[in-house]
Amino acid sequence: MPRRAAVGRRSFTASLKALEELAADGARVSVHVSDLDRGTVVLAGDDFVTLPTGGLGKVLLLVEVAAQIHDGALDPLEIVERASVDPVTTSGMWQHLKAPALPVIDLAVLTAANGDALAANALLHRVGLDAVRARAEQLGLARVALLDRVRQSRGPDDAPQFSIGTTRELAGLFSSLVNSQVVNPAVSAQVAEWLSLNHDLSLVASGTGLNPFAHENDEHGLLFINKTGWETGVRAEAGVLAGPRAGIAYSVIVCFDDLSIAHRLRAHDAFRTIGVDLMEYVF
Length: 283
Fold this sequence. Notes:
Oligomer: single chain
Shape: globular
Largest sheet: 5 strands, antiparallel
Strand order of the largest sheet: 2-1-10-9-8
Strand content: 15-25%
Number of helices: 8
Radius of gyration: 18 Å
């Protein structure tokens, strides 16, 4: 992995070591961290390589939903039937709820908060995959894409991945969100608000000490939004972390052979190590 270290603060030595050890064992690893105030890259490794990103691609869907709501093309209180999409049990809460239909705005919350597969598919069915792809192109994302809906299983005629991306573009997307540059300030604020509800703090965010279920108003002044992606042998995360000393936008992707719990935990440990280094950088 090529490396670039932070200047004037922590050098991310532990993060680089953890990622290089994974890469030496055959994992595909990519990372990008940039300073929000300075606009400088403080850590980068293979950040130009396109890799599968799992549910992280749902951020593109949320952007399109927020944009259509803002433009008046989509009513946030429009009721969407669960039966309008095929059953899928890969993730989320809607499959366990009795409500057979929910408004668009609630589906967006479910998609952001717990990566709800049914909610995401219902939103994608409503706004259209072509619209999501066009929006990504409009945002200048050449290597970040939502390829398909969530599927219970992928056959030879299906897209090989739910979503793909590079850590460079994903970190840039999150930087643009907090700088109100994604579509317009209102859309950026809405997407950031949804993402602030994310419950998955098990990867990079595990080093923050935040409450997974209520971290939008942290008592220590830590500002944080993120989205993760999980598939077999894929872990991905992108987000923004800001403390009293600095703010950063980050993205990490690790693709590994999920041969055992030990393999999986080594990948997760690397994410946590990065989270600890990021916390030392912003504090």
